[in-house]
Amino acid sequence: MHKGKKLYEGKAKIIYAGPERGTAIQHFKDDATAYNNLKKSTIEGKGVLNNRISEHILNSLNQIGIKTHLIKRINMREQLIRLVEIIPLEFIVRNIATGSLTKRLGITDGTVLDLPLIEYSFKNDELGDPLVALEHITAFKWASIEEIKKINTICLRVNDFMLGMFRGVGIKLVDFKLEFGRIEINGKKEILLADEISPDTCRLWDVVSEKKLDKDRFRKDLGNLIQAYQEVAHRLKILPEEANISEVKFNKPTAVRLKKK
After folding, report:
1. Where are the domains of the chain?
2. Phi, psi at residue 133, to the nearest 5°?
3. How far apart are alpha carbons 180 and 171 in whole angstroms?
């Protein structure tokens, strides 16, 4: 499949122009980052696992009527996607209090929330992706009230689906972030779920042991990140094809560095 020029490179993915107008190729890198890019590493095999897990989840969401940018997985590291205008917001859905929420508000880590909590952050690495209120979003025209209402509804539907999916394989869905984009399909403006859903963007804990199976293993220097991602894929029964697994070397993290503040 023809890959065009590079359109964008982020911390974990590269977006290239796709073979047809309105399409793009999303490439999953092995780079791992935390604390707004202060901590960095290269972890071989991470991109392969995130590509496969995200494809599985987005395909499942497509099947229940939640529209996503995913068209299909092309290979071990790449997906063919619809090219969307990304809304400059991250939508954070929380079921259990942990991470920055507990630090900001002094909530006991592990507190189960009565209802899912949706928070908004402005996508800007230089500013540290600050939390924003609905009034900020509308004042700066990042999205309309109608778009936010629609996106909130989608967030809760995604949460309901993933809670059940992960609970069925013995995993707690603690929290996750979503991104959305605008696109015109058949003359009609649509909001599509974009980016990825993977252990990079979700907090996942084992139901019994509360072992972390997500990027917190990298953030908190817990080790065995690849093994944790593999465990998620194993439980979902979606590990890469047996013929290709031997081609991927799952090594220990390399080139870890912290920038001084």
Report:
1. 6-84+226-242, 87-206
2. -95, 165
3. 25
